[in-house]
Design goal:
mainly alpha, Son of Sevenless (SoS) protein, Chain S, domain 2, 23 helices, Son of sevenless (SoS) protein, Chain S, domain 1, Ras-like_Gua-exchang_fac_N, Ras_G-nucl-exch_fac_CS, 2 domains, RasGEF domain family member 1C
Length: 466
């Protein structure tokens, strides 16, 4: 079974190199691609390193890095077509008589490459033309061993199952209703309190982790590349593969929804004591998220409690034991480029590497910061060097970050799902920012001229429409 790249795979030794190709102008003929030294190469050379032969198979790290980054320069279906063409040409698979001994050494390597590609980037194989290229080249080697055709059939079956599973994610976040402006009916008629559905902070933290891991399963590694690099500067103004980041965007929407859900749950109760109780409940949930390694839910909860409509509730906060909250805020403090959080993340990552149980393996990073890190990595280095070569060193670093994330998202959730809780998390109505302010002002009256004016404006614009 092919395995997805982990960061420890980034410096594995390779098997004998591919057939030598004539180096492009200014390119070193035997330039190492994975030894940690600065490296670059033409697209043709990088493609050649991807193609297996009877005596050569590329490193797993190279396969992942190149397949991740190559889509910035060539569409996946075109890349596969070129790989298949090179296989046919180099192994002379278009000849009437095949060298069976050589094909029997080459065939398993070709199928292994296709298996790793389909396992890690299954969405690259959604077009029939792509499947056609694979069937063609495998059909050419099948006369040497019918097992190749059977293996190809198994791979296609696994691919179809994987694509079907990826297409069955929770749809509620992709087409969620907009936040409601304000409650126009008694709260109970539009919204059950979360504490009425789940009053145990440990259980809620586990269900949040279940939701996070379920959402992460649908994010393909290629989405990180497609989200930030829309064009290759040397290829004119043609955009590269936009509209292929819906799962990544849905996950960001989930984070935002959780922030607003937390704020809504706090602002909605009419009684101060109940609001304080809800705040303390979320503090306990956030602390358990930290212990689990679910930093994304942790940050969403902390962010929700720090929203202005919540933070202004001074009388409410006066009844809250805030020591635990200040500890959580310290862990997620943005000072020093989130230095404290990054230290905690490294600790969770180390725990994951040495874990003996699924629970200890859980690492769910603060997703917006991960995206920001990848964005600045992309912005800080050019995709191509002045001589036109691809800056492969940059993409090695990109692959390290994305590869680590892929390892984390593959962890199986150890917590049993509670459908009633997850359904509530996905579907409970949430207030818009204006709705939150109105609820906040209703709970604790405006304290200054600015707040009073805002309250009047909001009441006339929102409540006046009801």
């Amino acid at each position: 079974m092919p395995q997805t790249l982990s960061t420890s795979d980034m410096v594995t030794p390779s098997s004998p190199g591919p057939p030598p190709t004539k180096p492009a102008d200014g390119e070193q003929a035997h330039q190492p691609l994975l030894d940690g030294a600065p490296s670059s190469a033409s697209l043709d050379t990088l493609i050649q390193h991807l193609v297996p032969t009877a005596d050569y198979y590329p490193e797993k790290a190279y396969i992942f890095t190149f397949l991740l980054s190559s889509r910035l320069f060539i569409e996946p279906r075109e890349l596969l077509a070129r790989v298949c063409h090179l296989c046919i040409e180099q192994q002379q698979l278009d000849k009437p008589v095949l060298d069976k001994a050589r094909v029997r050494k080459f065939g398993p390597k070709l199928l292994q490459l296709l298996a790793e590609w389909m396992e890690t980037f299954p969405r690259d194989f959604q077009e029939e033309s792509t499947i056609g290229h694979m069937k063609d080249v495998v059909g050419r080697i099948a006369p040497c061993d019918e097992a190749y055709r059977r293996r190809m059939h198994q791979l296609l079956q696994a691919l179809h199952q994987k694509l079907a599973a990826l297409g069955q994610g929770p749809e509620s976040l992709l087409c969620a209703d907009k936040p409601i402006a304000y409650r126009t009916k008694p709260a109970a008629s539009i919204h059950r309190e979360l504490l009425g559905v789940c009053s145990d902070p440990y259980t809620l933290a586990q269900q949040l982790t279940h939701v996070e891991l379920e959402r992460l399963q649908h994010i393909g590694p290629e989405e990180f590349v497609q989200a930030f690099v829309n064009k290759d500067p040397l290829a004119g103004t043609k955009p590269c593969f936009s509209d292929k980041t819906k799962n990544l965007e849905a996950y960001v929407k989930w984070f935002n929804r959780l922030c607003y859900l937390v704020a809504t749950e706090i602002c909605m109760p009419a009684k101060k004591k109940r609001r304080a109780q809800v705040i303390e409940f979320f503090i306990d949930v956030a602390r358990e998220c930290f212990n689990i390694g679910n930093f994304n839910s942790l940050m969403a909860i902390v962010s929700g409690m720090n929203m202005s409509p919540v933070s202004r509730l001074k009388k409410t906060w006066a009844k809250v034991k805030t020591a635990k909250f200040f500890i959580l805020e310290h862990q997620m403090d943005p000072t020093g480029n989130f230095c404290n959080y990054r230290t905690a993340l490294r600790g969770a990552a180390h725990r994951s590497l040495t874990a003996h149980s699924s629970r200890e393996k859980i690492v769910i990073p603060f997703f917006s910061l991960l995206i920001k890190d990848i964005y600045f990595l992309n912005e800080g280095c050019a995709n191509r060097l002045p001589n036109g070569h691809i800056n492969f060193e940059k993409f090695l670093e990109l692959a390290k970050q994305v590869g680590e994330f892929i390892t984390w998202k593959q962890v199986e959730c150890p917590f049993e799902q509670d459908p009633s809780i997850t359904h509530y998390l996905y579907t409970a109505p949430i207030f818009s920012e204006d709705g939150l302010y109105l609820a906040s002002y209703e709970s604790e009256s405006p304290e200054n001229h600015t707040e009073k004016e805002r309250w009047k404006t909001l009441r006339s614009s929102i409540l006046g429409k009801t």
